Each structure stands twice: as structure tokens, then as C-alpha cells.
Structures
1.
Amino acid sequence: MENSTVSFYFNLTMFMNIGHYSYLAFVFCLLLYSFIVSANLTMIIIILREKTLHEPMYIFIAFLSVNALYGSTGFFPRFLMDLLSDTHLISRPACFTQIYVVHTYVFYELTILSIMAYDRYVAVCHPLHYHRKMNSKTVYTLTFFAWVCPACYLTVSIILIVRLPLCGNNIQRVYCASWNIVKLSCVSNAVNNIVALLGAIAIAFLPFSCILYTYLKIVVACWKSSEVRGKVLQSCLPHVISFVIYSITSFSDTALNRQNLDEINPFLAAILSVEFIIIPPVLNPLVYGLKLPELRKHIFKIFLYA
């Protein structure tokens, strides 16, 4: 075993020296963060204020916006500070806190999308039983598991990572990520790999399977009935777009973990590593706000009377 080192700081090494362009990058990212906060807050306020929107579909959309605020707040403030800093050291507690927030954000996004897919499946395939199946108890139960299961898994995962003896403190990222810290371990990380694999199956593959199954059933229902087809395009298309956006951006980050970052353009690597935490929070409010008539009507009303 190599000699382990105890460091109270990690060094984020993916930041590039871009000189005076760092101020331009800071302004752009600040505007991006401001848009994420304002757009998602608008969605939450509209859904909370309008009683006609107190339905499962819109409640789950509000959860997506809450998660967008949660994840982007765990990333942007620190990232904005680093853009204007010459050093990119982050303390161990701050690093592990960021890992927890960013990773739970990723899993929350997936579990929320999975219960949204189930909601649309019931609405399209069992419309006469929708209010019986998607009652308050069902919504609360689905919400509980969507928030609690990822939190429990990440808590166990973080505890295991914190206990690892590390041989180095350089993280090839612009934010703290668990896999990069595991790669610094001086000992065999078989236990971590097993926990990560089981967690990935339970938290990732099961929701993915649920989403794919429900939308397959919806497609079959559309194929059989032209009446259903119009309803599906109106209410399900935004969910499909959100799921595709999430899948592509998450795959980019996952694929990046398997590559030798020294062989990739650092600017491209930085962009690919943060897509999943920037693109969905930016696009989801636009997709739902513009595609769903009820939300669009209330959004336009706000701007008209502003």
C-alpha cells in the first residue's frame, strides 16, 4: 500500500487560466444562475398560488424546479468564486458537502422523472381511474420514496468515501465528485465498488426501467387510439423532452469518468462535466412553461401585469 496523505483541502485541477476572459465567464455564469433561480422560482410560485394547478402532474413539475434550485445552488456559488480565483482549493467538509448535494440532485432528478412518467401512464392508459389511483396518499408515498431513497444511498456512500485513506488531493474536475476521490484511494476500493453498483441498480436502473416501461405502454395506447394521441402529445411530450435532456447530459458526465482527461481538450472536458447540472435546470422551466397550456397561460398573465 502506498503512503497515505492527510490533506484538509482538495485541489480542483480542471480550471484553466483564461486571463481577463475569466470576468466574462463569471458574468455569463452569474446570468445563467440568475435565470435558473428566477425561472424555477416562478414555476414554483405559480403552481403553489393557482389552485387549478394543484394536481399531481404540476406538483411533480414543482418538485423538478425545487431540485433545480437545490442542485444549482450546490454548484454555482462555489464555481463562481473559483472563476475569479487564482487557487482552487476546497476544504474536505465543503467538498463532501458538494458531493452530497450534486449527487443527490442527480438521483432526485431521475426519481422525480420516474414518478412523473407513472403519473402520465395512469392519466393516458387508465383515465377513468386516474383520481382513484393518483390520490393524495399515492402522491405522498411516491414523493417520500423519490426523496428519501437517494438521500439514504448517498449518505452511506459518502460515509464509505470519507473513511478512505487518500494518496493525493488533486481532483480533475471543476467541482467535487465522488468517483474522482475514490480514484485517489491508497487501498482497494472493492467495498465502495460493490455499494456503488448495488446503489446504481436500485437508484438508477429501476427508475430508468420504470420510465421506459410506462412510455412504451403510452406509445401502445397511442397506436391504438387517435383520440389518445392528441392528449399524449400535449401532456407527455414535455416529460419525454426532460427525460431525453437528463439522459444525454448524465451520459456525458458518466462517459467522461471513463476517459483519460489528459487526452481531452480541457475546455471540452469542463463543459461535458457540468452539462447535467446546468442544462436541465435551464431548459425544464422553458419546456414545461411553453408546452403546457395551463402553465403558459399563468406565465403570460404574470408578464402582462408585471
Note: The first strand starts at residue 9 and ends at 12.
2.
Amino acid sequence: MISDLSQQTFLSQTVDNGRICRLGLVGAGIAQSKSPALHEAEAKAQGIHCRYELIDLDQLGIGVNHLSDLLNEVESLGFSGLNITVPCKQAVIPLLHELSPEAQAIGAVNTVRFHAGRRIGYNTDAKGFGESFRRGLQGVPLDRVLQYGAGGAGAATAFTLLELGVRHLTITDIIHERAQFLADSLALRFTHRDIRASETPEAAIITSNGVVNASPTGTSKYPGSAMPLSQLRPDMWIAEVVYAPLETELLRSARAMGCRTLDGASMLVFQAARAFELFTGHTADIERMLRHFSRLSVN
């Protein structure tokens, strides 16, 4: 079935002359992704022939139940690896041969490398968010944090927040069982922290130093704000994972309120840089990738 679809809208069957690093992004509703331009531009700057393709489940008309067939096909076509995004970051795990220690601890994969007949899963979101946070929100209070979203991105950001030193973390999600599972999993690792899931996060907002939106709310596909804007306070900090649009409704309102804010751009770039290194074995130039993303964002 995937092969039939690939002939229509998906992967080119042509063979390139010479060696090529062939990569892709698997997810739903990813037409506006900046990943192809980011990876191809960095590869070109380093003299690497790279082609990065979008594999959009929505455009293909398939769901995560076809991931196994899809991985088989891209592997047979000689791909070096894949980036993985919503809604596949957790669903892909049973289809892999090996997980990096970080991916194992987080329970989500956003990068798959094909090597010697094996599929190896990594999580570069956590390091990407951590580096972005340290650069953009250095010195903010970390006693109490509220996070919206407990999917693949949320698992990575919650893990990183706790590694950064958050003492009390409340997680909320439209699927409460998912938030509870994430909170319980993290509590096993971070035994001296207060980690809880909440179906009614309004009370947690009142005492939180900061809020992280790791849900898809705020994207063009799911517009709006995960957090009630009426509960913003000037002393809060707000971090977004969403990068398209770069200024979400939540960020725009938070900045108008005087909050310290962090958009999703640098997390995207930092995680992409680490994935690039895993795919190619070459060290990425972070500053060059950040400059390239800035140019992409104004075009």
C-alpha cells in the first residue's frame, strides 16, 4: 500500500548519480516544516549531497498503523535516517531495534538512524529544548512549572525541565491518562521531585513561575492558546515548542503582558543540529543554522 502511495505523492524512486545522504521527516500536517531547508542548507555548506523529503501522513491519507510499512520502504530506498514528529514519536518505538539511553528514559523518539541493517532511535528534542532554554531563559525561577502537552514533545520537555532543576512540575493534557502516565514515569526517575498530572490546571497556574506549551495548540492546524490568556501574569515566563507560526497567540499575549518568553525556533534548530550530526557524522555549525532559520522565517 505504501509503495502505491509513494508513486503518487511520496518518495521518488529515481537513483542519484554519486553518493547522497537521503533523509526525511515523518509526521502529520508537516507541509510547512523548515526541516528540509535546514538540513539541506547545512549539508551544502559542508559539501554533503543531501536530499530531505517530507513524508506527510495527512497527504498520504494514512495513519500511524502504517509506520511499519513506511519504515520498510524508506530503508529499502537507502535513506540514512528520518526525523519523527507528531503523532509518531511514541508509536515508532516498537518498530526500532535499539534506543539511545535518552530516548529510552524519555519514552519518545524524534530521530531514527539506519545503520548496518538496524534502526536506532534517538531523542534530540530534549537536548534541543535544554540548550534553547539555557540561552533564552537563563536565570528564570524554576520552583513551580506547569506544562501543557504530554505527547512526544511533552515527554522531552518535561524530562529536560526536571534535569534543569524544576522542583514541582504539573502536567496537563487533553488526554488525562497520557499526562498521568508521563508523570508516573518521570516520578520513577526523579524521585525527589513533585510531579503530578492535573485535569484542572487553573490552580497550578496561580502558583507557577513558568508555563511550557508542548502541545500542538497554537499551530496553524490547531490555533488558539493552550493556556487561558486571562491568567497570564507579568512575573511569569512562557516557553513555546510551536515554531509555525513563530509568534503564537500565547507568546504575543505574554510579551504584551511583559513576561519573559521563549519561542520554538531555537529548540527546532538545536534538535535539528544534533540529528544532522547523527545522520552525517559531521559537526553542525549551530550559529549558521540559526542564521539560516532566521532567513527562512522572514521569507
Note: The longest helix spans residues 265-280.
3.
Amino acid sequence: MAYQESRWFKFFNEQQLSANQATLLAKYAQTLESNSVPVIFEIEHLSKLLGMELSLLSRMTGASSLFYRQFSLKKRSGGVRFIDSPYPKLAYVQRWIKNNILETRPVSSSAFAYVQGGSHIENARKHIGAKELLKIDLVDFFGHISFSSIVSIFEECGYSRSVSTQLAKLCTLWGKLPQGAPTSPVISNLVLLALDKRLQNLSDKNGLVFTRYADDLCFSGNEITEEFYSSVYDTLENEGFVVNEKKSGFVLGNKRKLITGLVVSESGVRVPKKMRREYRKQAHYMIKNGIEQLNGELGIFDPLYIDEVIGKGQYILSVEPDNAYVKESLCKLSKLKSDLLV
């Protein structure tokens, strides 16, 4: 391309830059445009694109810990997960980066979390009919993604090392991906693109299906060997990830195959029996007792209870669209809700 003929070259030339400088900057800008990402020359330029004061943006990159609040959530398996949530102004910056830069980049077809059209349900459906299953869980998934690999994501977009480093700082806390930042999920998929491809190629050679839902890796097929597991383990270790041995292992024969919370069988995917039984019990009593079950006559008044049960039924139906009982009961519950609101 004749960069000297581009609008960018003309612009820089009008700023009285040398022909060499104008050519280099024009080439840089057009590379970014060809990659469908915003042109950013330096952090001051980024502040203008964001409509934000340079001093504030500089504090976000230099002292990012001042722009987060931390809270804890109890894990279903026990213990506590700490969430670092950005304050609104930093969250705005991160959403801008996510929408305008990160989401323009391709991700692996093996990734089902944090991608458009992907879900834990579709992830599980990929393994229908599998005779053997290998599940691998990663320890501290976000924490094992290095700062340098995040910088590389932006460099691959065409940004300079300086701009890429500043963008990476805006998306990290203490050099790591924060659990609560809107940019963290998509960055994790982009960083793992090469790893996903290696694991996919390894699976293809062994006649296996591979999917990844965040830190939950699943391999399935007619036969999964110890040698294959060792190859996967070594690949993950070489990439700096740690396998959670307690949550990883083989599921063989007729043992229940649970993938991202769903039971996968020879013929389809279903929710666990416990959830179906719980919904059936709640729906049955609600339909049987009618308004009295909801208005407090038969217990504590909870106007949100019917929404909770309807939501559970809708979820089951999203997994099991042919479940006749759930379809019928949901119609009755919807009518009961309408009667309650009259």
C-alpha cells in the first residue's frame, strides 16, 4: 500500500512532520484500521477517545488498586471467592476496550464461555453419546494468565508496545485479571486461543471431542488413554496452568457424566434429577393450592416465589425442550401468576 497517498499521511504531513515520520504513523494507523480496532497513538489520544481527563486515565494505569472494591462470595463447594469489582469510571473504560477492541478478535471454536451463541448447555451437548470422558479443572484460572500475554493480545491487534502496555494495565489489577472486570472473560479466551488450538489438534488426532468452558476442559470419545491425558497435562503445564487434581479425572462406562452442571447421556442432555424433582414438587403444590400458596394463607407471603419456580421451569425447558410436564406446568403457573396480579 502507498502510505504516502493515504489520508493519514496527508494529515501528518499537514502537521509538518517529516515524510518518514508521516509514513510510519500512517502505516501504524492503517494497520489498526485494517484490524477493525480504533486508532490509538498514545494514552493522551485514548483519553480523548474516551472523553476522559488524561490525569484520571493516568491514575487508572498507575494506581489501579484505587479503582476497585473487593467483596466475597461463598462457593457452592465450600470456601470463599473474592471478587474485585471496578468502580464505575474504570468499568466504563473497560467496557469501551471490551466492545471496541477485544470483541473484534476471533476466539477458538472450542470455547463456549463468554462468547456469542455459546453456553454451558451447548458445551455439554457437544459430548452427547460419548463412552468415555476426561474432565480437567484449572486452579486459579484468571490468576495464571500472565501480564505479558495480555500485552501481547493488544500487540496482535497492531498497537505499539507502549499503547498495549497501557491498555493491559487498564484491564488488570496487580498484573492479574480481576474476577469482576468486564474485560477479564474475553481476555482469557483470547489468551487461550493458541492453547485451545493445540488441544483441539491433539484431540482430533485421537478422535476425541474437545470443549472448554472457562476453566472447565472436557474431552470425550470412545477411548481416552493415559498417554493422551499426559499429553494434555504437559501442554497445560507448559502454558503455566495448574491442574486441579481433585476436580479432574476420567468418567468411564455407565457412570454419570456431568458436564458444566448437566447430565450427558447417549441420547441427550438433561438437568440433574434433584433439580427436576425439586421443580416438580414446588410446581405441584403451587398448582394444587392456587392463590393460597402465594398470598400467605399457607405460609410466609413471598411474592417472588412463583417467579423463582417459573424461572427454574424455564431453565429446565431450555435444557430439555421436549419435557411435556414442564411445558404443561409452566402454562398453569403463568396463569396462576396472572390471577395473583389481578
Note: The radius of gyration is 25 Å.
